[in-house]
């Protein structure tokens, strides 16, 4: 698992438009909120994405880009964005490489059954590419506002 003050693992992953998004694209000019969520169009994930969308202009004022990540496809991400009018880029980590690099692919228990899945997690990466906040096991509701408060202090 990652910790604060580490260099954020680099990535190059397609977004909902199948355009490659690289962490290095933001270095020097934008903070990055990289949030991992289990699945498009599920209750908690929808709450989280909608709340990040509601605050999109505030994140922009704080020189911060918000990137959501799941193992869903680009097509699934676009459908999720269209259905809810989301204003965040969603990265398609279909191979799981990004999930592994950030340590969010973990064993989870649901109804007494253990299986592997994405643990809802968020990473705040400053303009220098350093992890300034690392949160595993995020609660979806209210999380976007907490992250806005953090990046407003960078």
Number of strands: 9
Helix and strand succession?
A: EEEHHEHEHEEEEH
Strand order of the largest sheet: 5-4-3-8-9
Distance between the termini: 23 Å
Question: Which CATH class?
Answer: Alpha Beta
Structural class: alpha/beta
Would you kindly provide a written description of the structure presented here, covering whatever features stand out?
The chain is α/β, with parallel strands linked by helices. It has a single domain (12-151), classed as 3-Layer(aba) Sandwich (Glutaredoxin). The chain has 5 helices and 9 strands. The protein has helices at residues 43-54, 56-61, 74-84, 97-101, 143-151, and strands at 12-14, 20-22, 31-36, 64-70, 89-92, 105-110, 113-118, 121-125, 131-136. The chain is globular and about 45 Å long. The mean pLDDT is 95.
Keywords:
154 residues; alpha/beta; Glutaredoxin; 5-stranded mixed beta sheet; two-stranded antiparallel sheet; 9 strands; 28% helix; globular
Question: Could you write a compact summary of the structure shown?
Answer:
The protein has 154 residues and is of the alpha/beta class.
Break the fold down into its secondary structure elements and pairings.
Elements lengths: L11 E3 L5 E3 L8 E6 L6 H12 L1 H6 L2 E7 L3 H11 L4 E4 L4 H5 L3 E6 L2 E6 L2 E5 L5 E6 L6 H9 L3
Parallel strand pairs: 3-4, 4-5
Antiparallel strand pairs: 1-2, 3-8, 6-7, 8-9
